[in-house]
């Protein structure tokens, strides 16, 4: 049973059932899917190891559920609408039949190039239909995809390729993004200088720019497709076989390859897509995220397609050719459900309101947001100007690690409150914890957000490093998954996410690890030591503030700043560029040598009235100097 939430009372009843008897609940949901063999047990779990297994013994292929099983009733329904970067270029619409054929054909391309079940395939592509096809083609034959967002640098790409020992890279000559083109193939070429596991790359022609094709390694996408048959049986997978790896930043320097598996991920993303958005047959759904992030995996590709929806993908950016683009696209395709990030809303809110008023937005029924806490002003602007006060806003809180929505309103059913993610999805059991590890039961509490019971789409491990998985998520609070977020639970039991409580900064909805940025800045020959924190930013939510000590007083601070910014952009990617770089003579450290980021965060926030206890500092004087020089 996929949907039975009709009103608020039925949400409450469904939630209660899901908590009272999770196995019965998820077993019933799973019945709505196509399995080659049913599961032997719904759930086995132990958070101390941690080990979580859903639908063990079950056999399936997620692409059968996203494609084959829809063909009898919706072969001619549009599965994917692709809106290009350039509004004058032709839209591409793929029906379920066409998508099915293309996925099978590309699955054969993968096979023809030696890819088999379990092999890792890195995908570094722009937002074109072939990206969606590539993910599904991997899943069709049981290959594990590892999508790397096409804004990452060559060295970030190389790190991710090497971490998973990918055998193949799928890319394109270039990509269009607003007024710019990205030289993706050139970036891949640079990365591959350092990636011994990669045997081949397959290159899609998108921008037509000149690229170097290395003989015996690089193949053209169109040549390979021309040779491939459109029939491809789906590989039968165990429910707990790996479906994909997706990297996310962590508190230490190295990105974590989160591992998601086939069965639970499919069921949970589909269930939450249908229910949270209250998706209705035939509606046009648009999630503006890039498929390079979990939002795109779960809520552009897998969830919507398994639910038989029409899912739109957009190649461009909200500001191109002008700040009205999103609204122009909503009108053009009569979009019913629109899902975006608070950072985009804040940027668009600053543009002249005529960019919104020019377009007919009456097709919209539901709005969504994701990625970071949405501030009250942005929430109201979205509600008033985009939803015209008639569209429920679902503020969906979740993570790369959780695979799907965790806390979110059910559109039109859960009464919303601005800035609140509201209530848990069925099956999700949050716990608010204090710093001593005690659960703060009841309402009107504030603390760290944990989850105390497994849900089907949770990540199972960090690729190649289960110990890190345990340490990061299951060691801070006994027998609980720790999210890294803080939250408030108000008198009505509604959750409001207050932001990260660890060393992760969310910039424009993108996760960045402070250590990762520090490591890069420290590589500059003049830099001695760096401490990076986040500070509130109007549009980006948070931005990067770097405190840098140098071996010698810099001759020209501005030049050095530019060099550092370029180094970060080149090593990690433009999203990680520091907004502010303050050169300091020393960092505030404890006697044991630990940098007191709490103090640096306050200085960056310009809130120095109460710096808390500084008595444990080795040299309290350093704080005064930093405050004086603050940017
Ligand atoms: C972190 C996860 C899940 C897809 C996008 C980000 C923050 C996410 C919300 C929200 C407040 C949010 C959290 C979370 N976050 N959604 N609706 N309200 N905060 O995935 O890159 O794994 O980042 O994003 O801090 O831990 P991600």
UniProtKB/TrEMBL annotation:
InterPro entries with a match to the protein in the record: Ac_CoA_lig, ACAS_N, AMP-bd_C, AMP-bd_C_sf, AMP-binding_CS, AMP-dep_synth/lig_dom, ANL_N_sf
Any one GO MF annotation of this record? acetate-CoA ligase activity
Q: Sorted alphabetically, which CDD domains does this protein's record hold? A: ACS
Xref: SUPFAM superfamilies:
Acetyl-CoA synthetase-like
**Source organism of this protein record:** Agaribacillus aureus
Q: Does the keyword ATP-binding apply?
A: yes
**EC numbers on record:** 6.2.1.1
> What keyword terms does UniProt attach to this protein?
Acetylation, ATP-binding, Ligase, Nucleotide-binding
Please state every residue range assigned to the domain named AMP-dependent synthetase/ligase. 69-455
What's a Pfam family this protein contains? AMP-binding_C
Ranges for domain AMP-binding enzyme C-terminal come to: 516-594
Write the protein's name: Acetate--CoA ligase
Q: Which family does it belong to?
A: Belongs to the ATP-dependent AMP-binding enzyme family.
Q: Could you name the domain of life of the organism this protein comes from? A: Bacteria
Acetyl-coenzyme A synthetase N-terminal domain segment(s): 11-66
């Amino acid at each position: 049973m996929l949907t039975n939430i009709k009103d608020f009372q039925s949400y409450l009843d469904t939630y209660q059932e899901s908590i009272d008897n999770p196995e019965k609940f998820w077993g019933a949901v799973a019945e709505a899917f196509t399995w080659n063999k049913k599961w032997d047990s719904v759930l086995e779990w132990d958070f101390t190891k941690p080990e979580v297994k859903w639908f063990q013994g079950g056999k399936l292929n997620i692409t059968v559920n996203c494609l084959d099983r829809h063909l009898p009733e919706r072969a001619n329904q549009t599965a994917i609408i692709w809106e290009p970067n350039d509004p004058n270029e032709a839209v591409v619409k793929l029906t379920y039949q066409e998508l099915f054929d293309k996925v099978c054909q590309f699955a054969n391309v993968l096979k023809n190039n030696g890819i088999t079940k379990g092999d890792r395939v890195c995908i570094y592509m722009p937002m074109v239909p072939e990206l969606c096809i590539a993910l599904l083609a991997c899943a069709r034959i049981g290959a594990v995809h590892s999508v790397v967002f096409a804004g990452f640098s060559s060295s970030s790409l190389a790190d991710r390729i090497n971490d998973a020992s990918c055998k193949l890279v799928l890319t394109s000559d270039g990509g269009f993004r607003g007024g710019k083109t990205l030289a993706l193939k050139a970036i891949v070429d640079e990365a591959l200088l350092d990636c011994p596991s990669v045997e081949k790359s397959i290159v899609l022609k998108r921008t037509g720019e000149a690229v170097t094709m290395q003989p015996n390694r690089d193949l053209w996408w169109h040549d390979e497709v021309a040779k491939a048959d459109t029939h491809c049986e789906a590989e039968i997978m165990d429910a707990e076989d790996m479906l994909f790896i997706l990297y996310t930043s962590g508190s230490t320097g190295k990105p974590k390859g989160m591992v998601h598996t086939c069965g639970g991920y499919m069921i949970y993303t589909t269930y939450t897509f249908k229910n949270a958005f209250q998706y209705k047959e035939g509606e046009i759904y648009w999630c503006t995220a890039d498929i390079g992030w979990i939002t795109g995996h779960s809520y552009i590709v897998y969830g919507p397609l398994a639910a038989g929806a029409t899912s739109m993908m957009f190649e461009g950016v909200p500001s191109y050719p002008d700040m009205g683009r999103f609204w122009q696209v909503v009108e053009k395709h009569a979009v019913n459900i629109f899902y975006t990030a608070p950072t985009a809303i804040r940027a668009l809110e600053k543009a002249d309101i005529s960019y919104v008023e020019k377009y007919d937005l009456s097709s919209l029924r539901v709005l969504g947001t994701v990625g970071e806490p949405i501030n009250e002003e942005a929430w109201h602007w979205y509600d008033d100007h985009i939803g015209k006060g008639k569209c429920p806003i679902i503020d969906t809180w979740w993570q790369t690690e959780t695979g799907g929505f965790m806390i979110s309103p059910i559109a039109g059913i859960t009464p919303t409150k601005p800035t609140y993610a509201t209530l848990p999805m069925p099956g999700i059991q949050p716990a608010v914890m204090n710093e001593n590890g005690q659960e703060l039961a009841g309402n009107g509490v504030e603390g760290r957000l944990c989850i105390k019971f497994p849900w089907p789409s949770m990540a199972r491990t960090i690729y190649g490093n289960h110990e890190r998985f345990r340490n990061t998520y299951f060691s801070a609070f006994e027998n609980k998954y720790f999210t890294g977020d803080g939250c408030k639970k108000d008198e009505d039991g509604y959750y409001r996410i207050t932001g990260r409580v660890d060393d992760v900064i969310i910039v424009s909805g993108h996760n960045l690890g402070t250590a990762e940025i520090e490591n890069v800045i420290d590589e500059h020959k003049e830099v001695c030591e760096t401490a990076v924190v986040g500070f509130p930013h109007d549009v980006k939510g948070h931005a990067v503030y770097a405190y840098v000590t140098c071996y010698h007083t810099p001759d020209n601070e501005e030049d050095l700043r530019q060099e550092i910014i370029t180094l970060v952009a080149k090593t990690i990617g433009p999203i990680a560029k520091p907004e502010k770089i303050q050169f300091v003579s020393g960092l505030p450290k404890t006697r044991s040598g630990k940098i007191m980021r709490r103090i640096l965060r306050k200085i960056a926030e310009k809130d120095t009235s109460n710096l808390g206890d500084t008595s444990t500092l080795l040299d309290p004087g350093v704080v005064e100097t930093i405050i004086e020089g603050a940017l």
